[in-house]
Each structure stands twice: as structure tokens, then as C-alpha cells.
Amino acid sequence: MSNPHVLIETTSGDILVELFQDKAPATVANFLSYVDAGFYNNTIFHRVIKDFMIQGGGYTLRVEAKNVNAPIANEAENGLKNTKGTLAMARTGEPHSATAQFFINTVDNPDLDFTEATTEGFGYCVFGAVVEGMDSVAKIEKTKTRAAGEHENLPADSVLITSVSVFDL
Hints:
There is one protein chain. By secondary structure, the chain is mainly β. It has a single domain (5-167), classed as Beta Barrel (Cyclophilin), CATH 2.40.100. It has helices spanning 25-36, 134-141, and strands at residues 5-10, 13-19, 43-49, 53-60, 86-89, 102-105, 126-132, 145-148, 151-155, 160-167. The strands form two sheets. An eight-stranded antiparallel beta barrel has the order 1-2-7-5-6-4-3-10. It has a two-stranded antiparallel sheet with strand order 8-9. The two termini are 13 Å apart.
């Protein structure tokens, strides 16, 4: 069985992602449950850091947090690395706190990889990779940012995720 693909349509272009169901089954199932519910539609990339990553999937256009499901177990010990173009789950300082937010690495980020099953070493679970649309990722990464409330790297001009849907190849 082939891995599922999702199309992330944004105001900065489309991003096609392959999800690694074999390496992170619970994470992929969680992500797809949000996709199927239409959760990501009309959310924004709310954290953009040049030479690091772009993060989205949790806030409305008005920068209001969306209600999320319960956190999932961190599957970062799956052998996948946070390399350029990979999709990973965002979380708090608690390793098993990921819900809906995700990020796309814009460079190799070895500091985010699993090293050991401790709070400091758990890392961030990679569960997919960009197949097409790194030009859109690069465009988002170049967006000017500003500080607003709790957000230090909020795009000055909103980058909207208009739709996320399962994409049949």
C-alpha cells in the first residue's frame, strides 16, 4: 500500500506532501483526522523563521487558537530526521503534547531529531515530506514577520492555508 499524500493549498502556492504512515502511524492518523474534518482550512502559517522552518495549523486568520483534540504520543523515535522539506509535528516543551500544529523544515535541523527518550532528547516527530512545492515553502519562508502578542514571528501579511485535502495520485 502506498503512503497517503495531502495537498496543502496556500495563498503562497500549493505544497504536496507524502505522509509516512509506515514510520509514524499514529501521527499520520491524527493529521489525517484533522484533514478529514476540514480543521486546517482557513488557518494560517503563524510562525515563520528564516533558515529554520514554517509552522501552521492551529490559528485562524484573526490569530485565534482553534480547539484541538487530545495530544498524541510522540513517534520521533522512528528513524526519520528533521531534514529540509520534511513535515513534523509542533509541540510544547512536553514531548507528548502535539495536537494539530505542524511545521515544514526549510533547512536540515538535526537539533530537532530524537536522541533519547527524555524531555530534552525526544525531538520532533517527522511524519512526511514535501514532494512538490518547495518553491511555495521558500516563498512563505521569505515572508516579512512581526511580533504580535505571544507571536514573535507572525507573517506581516497573512499566509493562509485555504485547504488541506487528501490527494489521490
